[in-house]
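Annual report, structural modelling task.

Input specification for the guanosine-5'-diphosphate-alpha-D-mannose complex:
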Amino acid sequence: MKAIILVGGQGSRMRPLTSHLPKNIVPVCGVPFLTYQIEYLKSVGVKEIVFSIGYRPEDIRAVYGDGRRHGVKIHYALEKAPLGTAGALKNSEKFVKGSPVIVLNGDILTDIPLAKMINFHKKNKDVATLGLVRVEDPTAYGLVLLDKKNYVTKFLEKPAADEIVTDTINAGVYLFEPEVFDYIPAGQNYSAERGLFPSLLKDKKNMGGYVWEGYWQDIGTPWKYLTTHWDILNGAFPVYAEHTSLSNKVYMGKGVKIGKGALLKGPAIIGDGCVIAEGARVLPYSVLGKGCVIEKNSSVTRSVLWDGVSVGSHVQLEEVVLGRHCKVLDFTKLAKGSVLGDHAKA
Ligand code: GDD
Ligand code: MG
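The model returned the following structure:
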């Protein structure tokens, strides 16, 4: 089977982290996020993936190229202007024409068992199968109502508070038969959630709901992005960065310098070429990119630092996300939940 990943939105809810980087390739535990989705698709034998891209395609191509390094073939379906989630699929159709396809929203991380979902889809012979999960607060998602046989009866994108009648939401994992593409107008902005799904239902096309109780996360806000790191360090997904795994659950890159009396406590990731000075502490659930410097007596806890961050001495960082080449001055304590974009100073 081939797959399409929707790699399009501007990631506005993730600013300032996404001011200079598309959200689909933000680093997650040392690798660009889409790597998790590529590995996920490879687990069911997918060899060809279409990146359906509406924003900063050159950045994504620079990371993945033709896909060879990741063991897949990547096609790029580019949009002159954002086409919306369904318009983007139509724009990718030429690469998958005539065959059923797996579609992923490019910002979700899940262990929905794709192989089982594919079997469910084949057995039911529906035009589409939607992966569904249950969440505590469904307001920010697409609500999906099912009948007793798990057929979708209603799709309600981002409902108002008084319209919330279920906690079951669209997980952004789909299986589509080729016929689905006939329901998408070509060359125009069209939404899967607001246009395509309601029109399939109106036309009495069967869409199956595959409900999953396991792991699911949309990484699209800084807080969810941060906590996804903790989940991965807790073992929800493998750490794909090519680091050495030490006995204290620290994943260590190459050429790291550790000063006297520095403390490293896992689970944590320390990227290539980091310098952890005397008496500094890297505490559990911290992820440091390449070339970060943590000066004397500073501590980093449950935080994510991108490449080249420099942290002065006597600094306390807890539950923060710092973009590339940020600089934190001596004797600074950042509030929990702080997020600094690339090159910011604090
Ligand atoms: N190529 C392309 N072009 N991709 C797009 C476009 C576009 O114009 N607009 C959005 N995308 C991509 C985004 O990059 C993302 O990977 C995916 O489509 C979903 O868009 P989001 O902007 O992240 O949507 P959302 O999170 O508010 O809601 C969607 O995901 C929820 C699950 O996380 C919907 O599908 C909801 O129904 C769903 O519950
Ligand atoms: Mg999203």
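The chain has a mean pLDDT of 95.
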